[in-house]
Amino acid sequence: MRAREDRTAGRHRRSPTAALWRGAALALAAVTLASCGGGNETAAATACVDAVQAKLAGRNYELRAKDLAGSAKTVGDEWHLSSQITFDKSLSSEYKQTVDCKVRLEAGKAPSVIFLQFNWSMDDVKKG
User: Which residues form the signal peptide (predicted)?
Assistant: First the structure.
């Protein structure tokens, strides 16, 4: 008899615990989908970061892959990325440049960096 009393508009009442679990599952699904949204941008940014690391081995620098991925734009089958790179961060010799990178993504192949350039300006160099 109790089940009939708990029916509201043809539905059974759900327990508060079940509602919490359902809400948590929906939130987790939303976060997962949001983080997967930038698959190609992330792959291109990772390829650029790896190329910069190979060029600047042993140097003190900071380059944020997240910033690179955020700047990603497609032109044909290429991804163009650009971000600020900081050398000698927190030192008196700190200076900043811009790194430009172009990546080609092809199905079934690893991303390939086809262009990598560092752009600098004398305005960014700290005078000693």
Answer: 1-29
Full set of structural domains in the chain with CATH = 2-36 (no CATH), 39-124 (3.10.450)
- β partners of residue 68: none
Q: Please choose, from the candidates 54, 57, 44, 109, the residue with its C-alpha nearest in 3D space to the C-alpha of residue 83.
A: 44
Rounded to whole angstroms, the Cα distance separating 96 from 99 reads: 10
Q: Where are the beta strands (DSSP E) in the chain?
A: 61-63, 73-75, 78-87, 95-104, 112-119
Q: pTM for the whole thing? A: 0.66
